[in-house]
Request: fold
Amino acid sequence: MFRRWFGAAVVVGVVAGTIAGLGVSEAAGGDLDRFTQQRLDWQPCHDDTLDKAGAQCADVTVPLNYAEPQGRTITVAISRVPAADQANRRGIMLSNPGGPGGLGLTFTVEISQGFPSYQWNQYDLIGMDPRGIGRSTPVHCRWPFGTYGQSAGVDLVGFGKSVATQADLAARCQAAEGDKLPYITTRNTARDMDVIRAVLGADRINYFGASYGTYLGAVFTQLFPERSDRIVLDSAVDPEQWAVGTFRDMGAADEAALDAWADWTAARDGEYRLGATRSDVRAVVTGLIAEAARQPIRIGSYDVDEHWLPTVIFENVVSPSHFDVLAGMVRQFADAAAGAPVQPSAKLQAVLSHFLDASSTDEADDAGAAVRCGDVSESRDPSWYWHNIEASRVTQPVFGPLVNNISPCAFWRTPVEPPTAVHNSVPALILQATGDPLTAHQQAVGLHRVMTASRMVTLQDVIVHGVITIPSTCTKQALDAYLRDRTLPTTDLTCHAD
Reply:
């Protein structure tokens, strides 16, 4: 359900923690040698971004189930661009853009190109589509739409429909991919990363993780602390809260971002005609959600109901740079609700297509659901979710029913491993904005607490998901020193945007 921020069913029985804390070459009595010593067949990537950067791509063969390394295998797609500054090369840099479910094959190259002033040129840039995703052996659940992230609606009837929808999504995944689902997890992706490390001949991994990618990075440091070099975690997830708590914490942060958007839009009432005050603009939004509950709003070829309209808003309130886009979308919904024939803008069309069309693309969230549900058990009691939804409505009228809603995980089989208990002294650098609407500030505080040797750089009074996307000399100096010399700030820092 997290969308990447850059530029914008299960078989029980695996012994918990079988290889936790071990390098993969030490696991399962050395049975992983055939994976760690494999020779890769590097080929052109056939991707514009990667090809222009001079990248090559390869498939890394890994066990589907690390507890049975002689069993079924899958592949993980990676890309590689050699370090531009070979004289000062510092090893390999892996990354993850978030999600779970985000495509990552191009991500390391994208951040190096989007933010070239940082020290990326001293690393071999390694992209990776995590297991189950993209060019890696995929998970495709054949969902009737692209995401499970929908709002509960305005009443118990709407919530009942949502419960039925989420149960259906889980059943589709089990029917389509039940044999793979138990093993599409964060822990196994971290193990894949260590296989990649070994295959590439590196002693340790450098890593940049964004959003959910910070959780993956934290899990890697817990399983493989001796294989962890420079670990940068931008817009962080608290491992103790993953995943239900992570989503619930979004509510207040999203409402605060919506307030800022409403203020911005009210100051431009002449352009958007959504009201001259924050309360007026907010009333339009809540009124549209209520209208969509009575009768779905027809916009282009789509009927947008109470479950999907809040998700559209959620998708576009992540940064002030999107405020004009969101205002334009809400204007289109208001016109359509008033009876006018409306064709969605190109950006709204893309959002609606992702949410409401069948999950036939790599951007679908079914693989992300597999990761979330495979990581941690979630409550199976619909009344628990309903209680939280109702309790949230007073202070979170738009997003409370979304971030507290039931998910397919309530209908998943029990994960084969327990959640990863992160508590280590790997010296990581955590970057976090106080106004982050997707990974709330307290999530980063939680990660900082359990990674006892980490330092936290807080970007103060900025609404953004992705700290390095905001120019800040203070943040840049801290990150540059860490990437260059592995030197962390002596204390936690509070930075401001330039």
